Amino acid sequence: MLNIVYDASQLVDGECNNAFRRGIYFVSLNILKELLKRSDMNVCLWSSPSKCFLLNELKKRSFPNAIFYYEKNLLTQFVSEKLTGLRSFAWKMERHFFIRKILWLIIFSGDFLVNRLFSLKAAFSSQAKGVFFSPQDAIPGCFRMQKNLRRFIILYDAIPFKLAGYSWQKEKGWFANLIRNINPSDYYFAISNETKKDFCHFFPRLKANQIWVTYLAAEETFRPVKEASALNDIKEKYKLPREKKYIFSLCTLEPRKNLIRAVRTFITFVKKNNIQDLVWVMGGGQYENFSEQIKRGALNPELYDQYIVYAGYVDDEDLPALYSNAEWFVFTSQYEGFGLPPLEAMQCGCPVITSNNSSLPEVVGDAGLMIDWDSDEQHVEAYEKYYFDKDLREENQRKGLEKAKTFSWQKTVDEMVMVMRK
Fold first, then answer.
1. Which of 108, 131, 137, 111 is nearest to 24 (CA)?
2. Does the predicted TM-score (pTM) go above 0.70?
């Protein structure tokens, strides 16, 4: 029987605030779902002291049969409960920057002290060998002191070391804490060969045999949805032009996502070819201010409002239909540790255009059009290839569906468990 203590901190955040329901949240969620399906292991959920009482919400909503893992010491429970209350209050103080900053300082200090001062009692025997698994964060000090636990962490990317504009992440936040604690005693899962190569390069103290490549996957809900009724419902809900076809993009608001160039070249493409029946649907939250930057970055800003439709935050249940009915999906990022959106698009039967850098060739390969992220000319050429060549779109639909079948969460977790058992 394999005993796993699972760091559920990201899941707690996501259950309490939709703003945290981003990539790592879904990675954490799907890995946990797969682990809980297995009868040959004990999986115990843990989170930091300021969140551990919020595990009750996670248990009620998503995992009623899960086992909790937290300190039974009364003093620790008292401190943790107070930290949880402070945490909830801090989120409500959004307009009071300095008060909120002081509250977070108290919360993080309290987390640190509780972790340092009190050893946590395992939900299984303290003599039993087991695993502490973190989907993102550095291993807490209290678990580092437990000699019977092997420690595993997922590594996503080394972007702060690769790209300008992200160096601040090396100084503060969860990534800074992670890299400060990288050591030759822990074990790591990298989400691509590119990620493994980067971490071995930037952290020579890491050895290649400490890191295993385990690809991520798209959820099973991502599948072709071609029903006309579904398309009509989507167009009505997100205010898309009923009479026009659309291409789709979905990404966060970061310079490396290359969205300004992708949209600018799309407007160049429609003007050059006098396209009247196609719009760009832009999915993602908090675009209101950023949309003005995109508009200013367009060579023909007067065409922006005519051809760009801002869909905003897209509900999870609507994504398969949006992907499936798009003419193609655009994701020409400057750098990715993996690239889930192109995989989701392929799994829905949507042709993709993506960059030929970092991990994206591992995910997409010859199943899509791969271009230089910084080439305006190649962007325009890719749009023209898909728009004027229906056979190419259909060929890449088929290739994408086949490529997507090589990824699954069951396969990911099978490989992780095999490594853990070693």
1. 137
2. yes
